[in-house]
Amino acid sequence: MSDETPLKPSGIRSLRPRKVTIGRPEPVRRTVIGSAGTTRLAMYESHADVAPAEWAEHHREQLTADMHEHGGVYFRGFGIDAPKALERFASVFVTDLFSENGEHPRVTGNGRIYTPVFHPPEERLLWHNENTFNLSGPTRIWFACVRPADQGGETPVADSRTVYERIPHAVREPFERKGVMYTRSYGTGLGVHWRDVFRTDSRSAVEDQCRAAGLSYTWRGETLHTSCVRSGVIAHPVTGQPTWFNQAQHWHPYCLGAEMRQAVSAVFDEGDMPRNCFYGDGSVIPDEDMAEILRVYDEAELVLPWAAGDVMMLDNLLMAHGRNPFQGERRLLVAMGGMITYPVAEARP
């Protein structure tokens, strides 16, 4: 006799099919990338045919909260790879896209979308917050990838709050107390010419712009020399957090690298270099202090590989950006907006 119990037909009929609902994946998935205590970004990945501007409009409150918490938001899979698409997307967040930035080349036929500043592809462009040497500048900046480089070309970011906290007090304090003096020489053969930056051939028009921007200026032949003092640290107008907000690591001769610094110093005196910076009282910022600042940035940065159609939206007051060396063709678009007047440093002894 078998130990098996045969299945009766009635038992089979009682197994009625049950309706099973398989959940569809969310069209856009949110994660947070990066390491706590260094630099983090909110990341939104689209897995469906989403209209970017309309979707951003519907989620603007959450995206703005992400900006204040993390300093930036990364969008992948949204297919934003043309000037008009970037302009529509950025205009969801600001009403005043910047159209007067002489540092960045404009995209042909579009006065509010730019391409990145030229920098030799074999060199690293160090971290900086945009336009910290000006009286006013953007609170928001967008980078859109049209074509990633064959190799490298990432846009590293570093949380300026983290940088501020990690720079030793003895290094940080003179920047807070004195501010930063930026000196610049246009028309030396290195860097952009004053005609390109000020978008005019008229010296008197340049002088008017200098006065309006709080720049001291002198002419030496065809070369324009300017100087100004700006804050080294500011408090974010919404969060109130202190943030490292200067371009010393972008202007100081130490940051050129030994070989380039030697070449530039052989041609220009300290006061005639295409770019230089000092403490706000004109005293020299020590090389060893700059080395410490670069170390902090190196440890704090977050690097993501670009893919075509990606967009990175940064709070320019909370997040610095740079560019890694690259090979092959690399095409990015840039938009800026949400213009404010930055706090002006008052150098104290």
Can you put this structure into words, describing what you see?
By secondary structure, this protein is an alpha+beta fold. The protein has one domain: Double-stranded beta-helix, CATH 3.60.130.10. Helix 2 packs parallel to helix 4. The protein starts with 8 loop residues before the first helix and ends in an 8-residue tail after the last strand. The relative contact order is 0.24. The N terminus is likely disordered.
Please write out the topology.
Elements: H1 9-13, E1 28-34, E2 40-46, H2 52-58, H3 60-70, E3 72-76, H4 83-90, E4 106-107, E5 110-114, E6 125-128, E7 136-147, E8 151-152, E9 157-159, H5 160-166, H6 169-178, E10 180-186, H7 194-198, H8 203-212, E11 216-220, E12 223-230, E13 233-235, E14 242-244, H9 248-251, H10 258-267, E15 275-279, H11 287-300, E16 311-315, E17 319-323, E18 326-327, E19 331-341
Parallel strand pairs: 2-3
Antiparallel strand pairs: 1-2, 3-16, 4-5, 6-17, 7-16, 7-19, 8-18, 9-17, 10-12, 10-15, 11-12, 13-14
